[in-house]
């Protein structure tokens, strides 16, 4: 039974759309991100409620069961996931969104009659399927289930071209014959395309792929809004698709790359592994926590560069406490944040905000780089690729052209690392062999805790 008149539903949809826009705006700043999430959730709740009260709902029991199961899974995942696993969670949820859009389109494929509707169904099925498997391959790379290196093989380009042509043929056949079997075939092709699209992308480019697939999911949702003639779904999908596209371009620009270069680079040429067999045998300068504490005792300007290793070790609270202690002694301390540090944009900002690091202490790359020349000591905690000079000096490197934090300009640099293994991009870091660079091997949290204790004894 329809309980709401169309006018009220329209107003509810407008309110929801405004809340979505305000949420997107708020997510651009750590100070307003928490409130922005609540605004977005409120908008979604209003939209769902307005829709349910404006149509004759059938299969209400099944809908209720699906909502309950989804809610349980979402609450369980949100409470259990660690901060270090947020990129994986985003990738998984993104894939689920794309898959849901594809499933809705598959159901509608059996009911659509006009060529326009079937064309939109074909686009939704294809993009949603690509997003589904592409996102889960990304999840596997981030989780360490799959190799983080770019995976290519002979004939990949030919296979990709054949699959794209097959997708066009399946979509055309769907429109001409109205046979839903072609939609299923198109979904199958899209699932394979998603896997083959992401496998050749590796290393530091993975965060950009997450954003790109997020844009794909938004477009799929927008297309499903056209299929279902639901204006709000169209608006919400467009907002997600547009914001994901803008973020993807901004991240690629921040890394000195192009989106097409990242996605299709491995198809055009072989991928440089960046391996350096000789480097593994070269000596590095190591020190312990007490040595670092002595360096800190003489430093007046310190920059802490956090990376994914800090997140994995859960060392953000120890880093925050060390910074607070040094600042209390009059030392100028900031955190240097690379745009793609961690596994997704804003990862380090969120992590350090959890440790109550003031927002003004989080300094972005463009602002912190000039400071390094006057910095006494840089502590690089669990970061590698974002400070690797190969991005500037090695044209064959997968990260060549990516702007980096120029920590080598500082007077002293200390890496806190679990091992000397290459970073996520699989590239040796020549900075390790610089005479002014030292390395403290071990768990970042334990090392920082020891440094903190040593610094306190020098008070």
UniProtKB/TrEMBL annotation:
Query: Which family is it part of?
Result: Belongs to the PNT beta subunit family.
Stored SUPFAM superfamilies: DHS-like NAD/FAD-binding domain
* Class of the enzyme per the UniProt entry, highest EC level: translocase
How does this chain sit within the bilayer? Multi-pass membrane protein
What function does this protein fulfil?
The transhydrogenation between NADH and NADP is coupled to respiration and ATP hydrolysis and functions as a proton pump across the membrane.
Full protein name: NAD(P) transhydrogenase subunit beta
User: Organism classification, top ranks?
Assistant: Bacteria, Bacillati, Actinomycetota, Actinomycetes, Micrococcales
Does this UniProt record's set of keywords contain Lyase? no
* Chief site of localization: membrane
Give all residue intervals belonging to the NADP transhydrogenase beta-like domain. Answer: 10-453
EC code: 7.1.1.1
Organism equals Microbacterium pumilum
| Cross-referenced InterPro entries | DHS-like_NAD/FAD-binding_dom, NADH_DH_b, PNTB-like
Name the keywords, alphabetized.
Cell inner membrane, Cell membrane, Membrane, NAD, NADP, Translocase, Transmembrane, Transmembrane helix
Q: Extract the Pfam families matched here.
A: PNTB
Q: Where in the cell is it found?
A: Cell inner membrane
Gene3D superfamilies associated with the record: TPP-binding domain
* Annotated TM spans: 6-24, 36-54, 60-78, 90-110, 116-139, 151-175, 181-199, 206-226, 232-252
- What catalytic activity is recorded? NAD(+) + NADPH + H(+)(in) = NADH + NADP(+) + H(+)(out)
């Amino acid at each position: 039974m329809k309980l709401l008149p169309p006018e009220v539903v329209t107003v509810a949809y407008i309110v929801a759309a405004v809340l979505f826009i305000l949420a997107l705006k708020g997510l651009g700043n750590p100070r307003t991100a928490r409130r922005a999430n609540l605004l977005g959730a409120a908008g979604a709740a209003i939209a769902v409620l307005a829709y349910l009260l404006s149509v004759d709902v059938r299969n209400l029991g099944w809908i209720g069961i699906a909502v309950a199961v989804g809610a349980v899974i979402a609450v369980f995942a949100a409470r259990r996931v660690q901060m270090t696993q947020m990129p994986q969670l985003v990738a998984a949820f993104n894939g689920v969104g794309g898959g849901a859009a594809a499933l809705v389109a598959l159901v509608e494929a059996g009911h659509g009659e006009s060529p326009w509707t079937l064309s939109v169904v074909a686009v939704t099925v294809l993009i949603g399927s690509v997003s589904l498997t592409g996102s889960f391959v990304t999840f596997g790379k981030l989780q360490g289930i799959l190799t983080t290196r770019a995976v290519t093989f002979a004939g990949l380009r030919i296979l990709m071209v054949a699959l794209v042509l097959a997708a066009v043929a399946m979509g055309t056949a769907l429109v001409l014959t109205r046979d839903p079997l072609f939609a299923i075939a198109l979904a199958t092709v899209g699932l394979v395309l998603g896997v083959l699209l992401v496998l050749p992308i590796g290393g530091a480019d993975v965060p950009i792929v997450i954003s790109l697939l997020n844009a794909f999911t938004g477009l799929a949702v927008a297309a499903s809004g056209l299929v279902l003639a639901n204006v709000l779904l169209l608006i919400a999908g467009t907002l997600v698709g547009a914001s994901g596209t803008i973020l993807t371009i901004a991240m690629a620009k921040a890394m000195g790359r192009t989106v097409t270069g990242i996605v299709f680079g491995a198809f055009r040429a072989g991928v440089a592994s960046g391996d350096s067999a000789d480097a593994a045998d070269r000596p590095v300068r190591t020190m312990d926590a007490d040595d670092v504490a002595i360096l800190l005792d003489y430093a007046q300007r310190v920059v802490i560069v956090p990376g994914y290793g800090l997140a994995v070790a859960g060392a953000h609270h120890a880093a925050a406490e060390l910074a607070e202690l040094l600042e209390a002694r009059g030392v100028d301390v900031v955190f240097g944040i690379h745009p793609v540090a961690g596994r997704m944009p804003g990862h380090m900002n969120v992590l350090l905000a959890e440790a109550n690091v003031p927002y003004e202490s989080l300094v972005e790359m463009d602002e912190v780089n000039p400071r390094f020349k006057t910095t006494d000591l840089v502590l690089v905690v669990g970061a590698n690729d974002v400070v690797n000079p190969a991005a500037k000096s090695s044209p064959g490197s997968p990260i060549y052209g990516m702007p980096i934090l120029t920590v080598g300009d500082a007077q002293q640099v200390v890496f806190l690392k679990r091992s000397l293994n290459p970073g996520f991009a699989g590239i040796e870091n020549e900075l390790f062999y610089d005479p002014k660079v030292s390395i403290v091997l071990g768990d970042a949290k334990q090392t920082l805790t020891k440094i903190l204790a040593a610094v306190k004894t020098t008070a």
